[in-house]
Structures are given as C-alpha cells and as structure tokens.
Specification:
333 residues, Rossmann fold, Tyrosyl-Transfer RNA Synthetase, 2 domains, two-stranded parallel ribbon, 14 helices, binds tryptophan
Length: 333
C-alpha cells in the first residue's frame, strides 16, 4: 500500500473555539484524520508574536483549545496532537530557515502589512512578527508534510512555505522537503451574532462548548432581517443571520418551512430563534458533554498531549539530523 499522505495544520492558541472555527476548520480536521496521517498542533509561539506583551493567557488558552479539539472528535488514536513550544526542534529549523529567507519575501507578505495597520495598541514592528511565516514554514516542512488544510487567509503563508522549501532544496542540493499544497477548506462563511464575520475580536461568537442557557440568550439577541421591525411584516430570510444558522443546524424540511414562514410573516423572529436554539443546543450537546468529561480528567488530557509531543519530537529529530547534514553544519556521517 502506498504511504498515506501527511497532513499538518495548526491554530494559534486563542482559547475556546467558536462555531466559525468548528465549521470552518475543525469538522474538516476530524474528517481528515481518517484519510491521512495527520498532525495538529497549537501554535503558542505564533500567539506570542502578537501577544508578547500580555502573554498571561496563552498557556490557559492552549489547554482550552486542546480540550475543544478533543471534545469535537480529534482522536489521538487517529492523529497526533501536540503543542508547538514543546517541540523545540521547530525553533532550530526556524533559525536555519531564517538564514536563507530573503527579507523582501517577508516584507511583502500581505498579512504582515495588514496586521501592522489593523491591530492597534500592539507594536508589531518586531523581528518575530516579521518572521511569523518563517516559523510557520518550519512547522510545516519539519514534518515533511504534503498538505496543509487552511483557510484562505493563510494562503500567502503556505505560498511562502513552498518558496522557502524550494530554496532550501535548491541551495543545499537535496530533495529533503516535499513542496506542500494548501488544502483549501471551502466553507460557507458563518456570520456572527451581529451579522459580521464571526470573530473573537468582534465579540459576536457562539462558542462550541458554551453552556445551554448562554447559547439560548445569545441566539435570542441575534440580528434578524432589519426590515422586519414588526411581527406581521414579512421578512427576507436570506439577509438574516438566524436563517444562515438554520441552514446548518435544522433539517431541510424545517429550513423550507422557516423560509416560507418568514416570507409570509407566518412565523415570527422569536419563534424562529427558539427553534434554532433547540437545534443548535441538540447538535452541540455531545461536544459540551465530552468537554466536561475531559475537564474532569486533565491527567488523561495531559497524557494525550505528552504522547503527541513525543511523537512529534521523534519526527522532528529525524528531519533535523538530515537538515544539518544537508547544510553541512555537522560532521559528515
Ligand atoms: N498562522 C496560522 C493561523 O493563524 C497558524 C499556524 C501556525 C499554522 N503554524 C502553522 C497553520 C502551520 C498551518 C500550518 O491560523
């Protein structure tokens, strides 16, 4: 049998995950672990590139993220889950790659330029933040991964990774690193409670493992068709974020009934939201249940991650030996 392709992806440790993360990335990870050899990791060093002045939350966020991953079904029997900063070899490869990465490649990286202007209150004119994609390249190629499942926003980083891998191979006359492909996850953008993109920084999220009464309360305050200011005014479901959720969480006949009910003012927004609440809670209940079980057994969770770290380290140690040989920075074997 041909070897299974190797997939790797990471997420910055930002804490609990929301429904946008669930449908945008996690459900896909859960599928992929059954088809490929998968590595998933919490990118806590990447979190530090922007939060170095307020690092207090990063470690807790890391465990929060691990718990959510396990709760939604990432399974250590089927994939390797680890924490970036626990596998120091990433840092060594980052350092070596930084030697060969031309500065202009980094300076023209669109995310570098955007974040500088978009995130206020943080000084991102740092060497570490400029080097963000070099660290990301190290994360990926140290596993000699073939595919990287990411959202569109990460495409420039995967492209840079490909360029860095090619440059390494060319410069040191080796074929050590496969050129990884981005595996774009095509997902319907799930709006946040206010209709904008769901994002932690907008404060418009529903979290995957949130308590039921909180979910109910959030949905009850969700934006609907703004034109439907009274119960008896017909609405347009297509402009309502509530309806976007129905499409994901309710059965096709119920979705059809809701759409029709909205257009004819047969169903009011309050009822529409109550029905959505019921379906969302029912779908998320197993995740919440699983998370509570895991929280009650952190020893087991720590064990899972320690094992993942160890498996990851083993891969990295092997790659780094070949990297040092390729460069010639060690005595020839
Ligand atoms: N930059 C990615 C993000 O913000 C996180 C990340 C770090 C990553 N290293 C990676 C993603 C390697 C894929 C592969 O989401």
């Amino acid at each position: 049998m041909a070897e299974r392709k190797r997939i790797l992806s990471g997420m910055r440790s930002t804490g609990r995950l929301h429904l946008g993360n669930l449908h945008g990335a996690l459900e896909n990870f859960v599928q992929l672990q059954h088809q490929y050899e998968c590595f998933f990791f919490v990118a806590d060093w990447h979190a530090l590139t922007t939060d170095y002045a307020t690092p207090q939350a990063i470690r807790a966020n890391t465990w929060d993220m691990v718990l959510d991953w396990l709760a939604v079904g990432l399974d250590p029997e089927h994939c390797t889950i680890f924490i970036q900063s626990e596998v120091k070899e990433h840092a060594e490869l980052f350092l070596l790659l930084s030697m060969i990465t031309p500065l202009p490649w980094l300076e023209r990286n669109p995310t570098y330029k955007e974040q500088q202007t978009q995130i206020d209150g943080k000084d991102l004119a740092t060497y570490g933040f400029l080097g963000y994609p070099v660290l990301q390249a190290a994360d990926i190629i140290i596993y000699r991964a073939n595919g990287v499942p990411v959202g569109k926003d990460q495409l420039p980083h995967v492209e840079l990774t490909r360029e860095i891998a090619r440059r390494f191979n060319f410069m040191y006359q080796t074929e050590l690193f496969p050129i990884p492909d981005a595996l774009l996850t095509e997902v319907p953008v799930l709006p946040g409670l206010d209709g904008r993109k769901m994002s932690k920084s907008y404060g418009n999220c529903i979290y995957i493992t949130e308590a039921e009464d909180v979910i109910a309360d959030k949905i009850s305050k969700m934006m609907t068709d703004p034109a439907r200011i009274k119960r008896d005014i017909p609405g347009n479901p297509e402009v309502s974020p509530v309806f976007a959720y129905h499409k994901l969480y309710s059965s096709p006949p119920e979705v059809a009934e809701i759409a029709e009910g909205c257009r004819t003012a047969k169903i009011g927004c309050v009822e529409c939201k109550k029905r959505l609440t019921k379906n969302v809670i029912a779908r998320l209940a197993p995740y919440r249940q699983k998370r509570l079980e895991l929280e009650a057994d952190m020893k087991k969770v720590r064990g899972i991650i320690e094992e993942g770290n160890e498996r990851a380290r083993r891969e990295c140690i092997a790659t780094m030996e070949l990297v040092r040989q390729a460069i010639g920075i060690v005595d020839r074997k």
